[in-house]
Amino acid sequence: MIGLEIRIDIEPGKRREFLQTADTLLEENPTQGTRCMDRGMFEQHGVPNQFLWHEEWDDSDSLEARLASREFRTLLGALRVLGKTHDIRIANVERRSSLEIEE
Asked: Which pLDDT value is given to residue 1?
């Protein structure tokens, strides 16, 4: 799997608008013909208005289609208007069905 992460600072006065926009974008179906395994948005604990947009894609073709999509351009446009994007990261993600923790 391949992960996409975007770190975002939102202007305090635009928080409400950002959250509404993010809800709408998260409700949309992923880019047609791709395999999105997971996506979500998280707020940094103790740092108001700092968020992480996270997506996991099954393969590089799906991620490339996502990055070229109208939906992704819409997301980036909204982020430019409502705040500041710190960085965009792409990383390999390893999923395990179970994790054993020794005590």
From this structure: 86
CATH number of residue 38's parent domain: 3.30.70.100
Tell me how far apart the alpha carbons of residues 31 and 100 are, in angstroms, rounded to a whole number: 35
Which residue type does 15 have?
R
| Structural domain includes residue 38 | yes
Alpha-carbon Rg for the chain in angstroms:
15
The verdict on residue 99 lying in a domain is no
Tokens (6 digits) for 86: 């710190």
pTM across the whole model: 0.80
Question: Taking Cα atoms as reference points, which of 90, 93, 92 lies closest to residue 6?
Answer: 90
Q: Which domain holds residue 75?
A: 2-92
% of the chain exceeding 90 in pLDDT:
37
